[in-house]
Amino acid sequence: xxxxxxxxxxxxxxxxxxxxxxxxxxxxxxxxxxxxxxxxxxxxxxxxxxxxxxxxxxxxxxxxxxxxxxxxxxxxxxxxxxxxxxxxxxxxxxxxxxxxxxxxxxxxxxxxxxxxxxxxxxxxxxxxxxxxxxxxxxxxxxxxxxxxxxxxxxxxxxxxxxxxxxxxxxxxxxxxxxxxxxxxxxxxxxxxxxxxxxxxxxxxxxxxxxxxxxxxxxxxxxxxxxxxxxxxxxxxxxxxxxxxxxxxxxxxxxxxxxxxxxxxxxxxxxxxxxxxxxxxxxxxxxxxxxxxxxxxxxxxxxxxxxxxxxxxxxxxxxxxxxxxxxxxxxxxxxxxxxxxxxxxxxxxxxxxxxxxxxxxxxxxxxxxxxxxxxxxxxxxxxxxxxxx
Length: 388
What we know:
This protein is α/β, with parallel strands linked by helices. It has 14 helices and 6 strands.
C-alpha cells in the first residue's frame, strides 16, 4: 500500500514536469520570433520577413572653378562660331546652366552668385571713400567708429536694413573687408598718459600734413573768405549768478529762472575774413520747436532738435546742406572752400563727407586735444560772446 502511494507521487511529478517543459519551450519560441522580426530570419513555424531599404546617400556637387576671362572667352566663342553650348561649356570648364544664363544676359557677367551687399554697392563705395578721406586727412577710423558712422548714415538717409537697431554687426564688417581688399586694419601708435595733452611738435606735424594735403588740391593760397571755422558752444538760458544788493546777514540769495530750458547749443560758422554765416541753434524739445521760437528766430538761421540739445550727425548734415551751402551760393563765394572743425563724430558722418566732396567743400578735422590752442572760435569769440 505504501509503495503504491510513492509510485503515484512519482508519476504525478513527472507529468507536472513535462507540462512545465512544454510551457517553457513555447515561451522560447515566441521570444525567438520577436527577436528575428527585424532581421528576416525564420525561427520555428512562424516566419516574419522585414525588408529595410537604405536611404540614398546625398552627393554634394562641387562647384566648378573658373575665372572671368574664361567666361568672356566662352561667350566670344559662342558669338563667333556655331558650336553647341555643351561643347563650349566642357571646353572652358563652365557649368552649362551658368553659360546659358550669361549668354542670355551678358551684362550680368561681373555679377557674383548670391545676394549682393545689404547697403548696395554704391553706398559701400561711399563708405570706402569716406574711410580713405579720413585717413588722408590724418584721422583714420576704428571699427566701432565705422559702425557708428553707418548707424548715423542709415538714420540720416532713412534706409531700411536688417541690422539690429540700424547698426551693422560682425558679419557685415567681415564681408565689407573682403569686398574692399585695399583696406586693411592697422594698429595705431598709442600715446601714454603723459602725452595725452598735445605738444608743439604734434601741432607742427598736423600743419605739415594739412599743408601737404591742400597742396595736392592747389588750396594753400586761397582768399580768406573761402576758409571757415565752425564750432558749437553751450549757451545758458539761465545765466550765472551776479552780485546783488541785499540785507546784511542773508546767507543765501535766490534768483528764479526757467529750469526746463537751462541751456541750448549754438553752432557758429565764421570765415577768416570775419564774415559770419547763419548760425544754428539746437533745442531739447521732443517733437518740434515751438512756433513762437521759429517766429522770433532771425531769417536764415538753422534750428535742430535732440534729447539733450547737443549737436547730432543728422542736425549737422541738415545745417550744411540746407543752411550753409545755400548761403555760399547766395554770397557768390568761390569754390572750393575749406571748413575746419573739431573731430566730433557728428561733423564727419558719411553722407555729409560725400555731399561736401561732390560740391567742392573740404571738411578738415583739427588735431585732437588742441582746439583750445588752434581753434579760432574757441580762442577769440566764445569767451567774449558769453561774457557780453
